[in-house]
């Protein structure tokens, strides 16, 4: 079986000479992203806490997006999905994404509804 | 079937031996498992999100719960979890390097990289065990109300958390143990908190600097601190003393918080543990030369997929439990 690796990340912006080099490159990138997350989590910039988008703080959106970025590079370069056939890659990636997005949408809406029932309804739970 | 016209290309399509996905059976099955496992974890995290959105105004703040680093005293939120994340990513890297060395049939390099991967996994599992122990032991202690809400204590002048051990009074009291000979039913008594409810309440009354902090999160995103007189009123609602955490109650706030913590990080830790065990098996196979004789190191690649998956899940657990 052939083991050619695609040796570029960031859509070709960064090209590596060997697979080993690419692995270290991805490690550095993932470490930087994690460090940014931790620093943001510790200082918690005021602006990002005050503003919200779709009912969630901007800071939390940043965390979630950075997590997805990390997940992308782990799956694409460590689990070498980048080198797999696109049919296999799509089957693996889009199946969970669709199902999880659906589940999260339903559960969070329902949870918000329950929250409002507790808040505005005649239910006492904090006593 | 003689009349059937067969052309060369059709024989190629239906004659077997095609690999449209260009992946071996074992690798495909590993991916099947990983996708289904990913859905299991997503189910857990989504239900965590459900409970959190349901109690959005009273959910514990992770920064205030996970503040410890082994061998260091003081308040270091998230530092240790960040370290654990780094360890896991690092062991993922040594795993890819092992896979890469396997492709190039370098047996000794595979052995060394597998060894480092196992060490990384072991450090992570150990850290998680420590994290659990700290979480179970607790920090400050708290009171629980009749409604199952948690009341924590704060020093009014500094705004810092106050441990019940620091202000509770010691009131000598007789405690009668139920003994086996006295009842039709007999259960061993469960562990008692170090202070009785009465001792904590008297301690708050005697110490004018102590105020109560409720679970309610205010506009600034901080827990609400009551005034001294409100605190004294609130004491009347208290039903029991809570120290640390278990599956029934915990001193950090919502009961579901500890339940999900144990369940999700426990399930993940179990994955890491089994990953380490599988890695050890493969490690010895590599040493024995099994894959050298087989002619390829695809087995290393397959456990590698599992190992990266465990790392991938941790990235999400880290975000949703510790950051968001």
- Strand-pairing-aware structural class of chain A: mainly alpha
Query: What is the domain tally of chain A?
Result: 2
Question: Topology as H/E string of chain B?
Answer: HHHHHEEHHEEHEHHH
Q: List segments of chain A where confidence is low: pLDDT < 50 over at least 5 consecutive residues.
A: none
Total DSSP helices of chain A: 4
What would you report as the Rg of chain B, rounded to the nearest angstrom?
A: 28 Å
- The total tally of domains of chain B equals 2
Number of strands of chain A: 4
Total beta strands of chain B: 5
Mean pLDDT of chain B: 89
Would you mind describing this structure in some detail?
The complex is a heterodimer of chains A (about 130) and B (about 325). With about 130 residues, chain A is mainly alpha-helical. Chain A has two domains: about 10-85; about 85-125. In chain A, about 70% of the residues lie in helices and about 5% in strands. Chain A has four helices and four strands. Chain A has helices at about 20-45, 45-50, 60-80, 85-120, and strands at about 10, 15, 50-55, 55. A two-stranded antiparallel ribbon of chain A has the order 1-2. In chain A, a hairpin with a 2-residue loop joins β3 and β4 (about 55). In chain A, α1 (about 20-45) packs antiparallel against α3 (about 60-80). Chain A is elongated. By secondary structure, chain B is of the alpha+beta class. Chain B has two domains: about 25-140 and about 255-324, Four Helix Bundle (Hemerythrin (Met), subunit A), CATH 1.20.120; about 140-245, no CATH class. In chain B, about 55% of the residues lie in helices and about 10% in strands. Chain B is built from eleven helices and five strands, in the order αααααββααββαβααα. Chain B has helices spanning about 10-15, 25-55, 60-65, 80-105, 105-135, 165, 195-205, 230-235, 255-290, 290-295, 300-324; strands spanning about 140-145, 150-155, 210-215, 225, 240. Chain B has a five-stranded antiparallel β-sheet, with helices on one face. In chain B, α9 (about 255-290) runs antiparallel to α11. The longest helix of chain B is centred in the C-terminal third of the chain and has 34 residues, at about 255-290. Chain B is elongated and about 85 Å long. Chain B starts with 7 loop residues before the first helix and ends with a helix. The chains are: A mainly alpha (about 130), B alpha+beta (about 325).
């Amino acid at each position: 079986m052939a083991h050619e690796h695609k040796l570029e990340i960031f859509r070709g912006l960064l090209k590596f000479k060997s697979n080993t080099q690419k692995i270290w490159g991805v490690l550095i990138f993932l470490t930087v992203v994690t460090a940014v997350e931790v620093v943001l989590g510790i200082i918690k910039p005021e602006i990002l806490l005050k503003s919200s988008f779709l009912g969630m703080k901007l800071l939390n959106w940043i965390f979630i997006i950075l997590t997805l970025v990390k997940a992308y590079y782990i799956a694409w370069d460590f689990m070498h999905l980048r080198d797999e056939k696109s049919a296999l890659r799509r089957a693996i990636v889009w199946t969970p994404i669709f199902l999880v997005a659906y589940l999260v949408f339903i559960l969070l809406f329902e949870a918000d509804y329950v929250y409002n029932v507790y808040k505005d309804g005649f239910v006492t739970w904090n006593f | 079937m003689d009349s059937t016209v067969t052309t060369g290309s059709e024989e190629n399509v239906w004659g077997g031996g095609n690999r449209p996905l260009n992946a071996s059976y074992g690798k495909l099955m590993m991916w099947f498992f990983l996708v289904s496992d990913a859905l299991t974890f997503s189910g857990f995290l989504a239900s965590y999100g459900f409970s959190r959105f349901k109690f959005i105004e009273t959910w514990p703040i992770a920064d205030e719960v996970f503040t410890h680093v082994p061998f260091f005293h003081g308040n270091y939120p998230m530092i240790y979890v960040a370290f654990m994340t780094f360890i896991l990513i690092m062991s993922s890297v040594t795993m890819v390097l092992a896979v890469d060395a396997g492709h190039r049939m370098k047996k000794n390099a595979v052995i060394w990289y597998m060894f480092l991967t196992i060490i990384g996994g072991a450090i992570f599992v150990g850290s998680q065990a420590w994290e659990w122990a700290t979480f179970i032991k607790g920090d400050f202690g708290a009171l629980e109300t009749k409604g199952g809400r948690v009341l924590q204590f704060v020093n009014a002048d500094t705004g810092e958390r106050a441990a019940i051990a620091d202000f509770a009074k010691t009131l000598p009291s007789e405690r009668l143990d139920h003994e086996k000979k006295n009842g039709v039913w007999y259960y061993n008594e469960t562990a008692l908190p170090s202070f009785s409810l009465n001792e904590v309440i008297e301690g708050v009354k005697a110490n004018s600097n102590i105020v109560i902090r409720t679970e309610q999160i205010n506009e600034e995103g901080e827990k609400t601190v009551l005034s001294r007189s409100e605190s004294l009123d609130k004491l009347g609602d208290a039903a029991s003393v809570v120290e640390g955490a278990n599956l029934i109650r915990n001193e950090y706030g919502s009961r579901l918080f500890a339940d999900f913590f144990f369940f999700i990080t426990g399930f993940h830790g179990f994955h890491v543990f089994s990953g380490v065990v599988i890695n050890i098996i493969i490690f010895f196979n590599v040493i024995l030369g099994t894959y050298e004789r087989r002619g390829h190191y695809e087995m290393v690649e397959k456990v590698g997929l599992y190992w990266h998956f465990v790392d991938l899940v941790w990235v999400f657990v880290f975000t949703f439990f510790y950051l968001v």
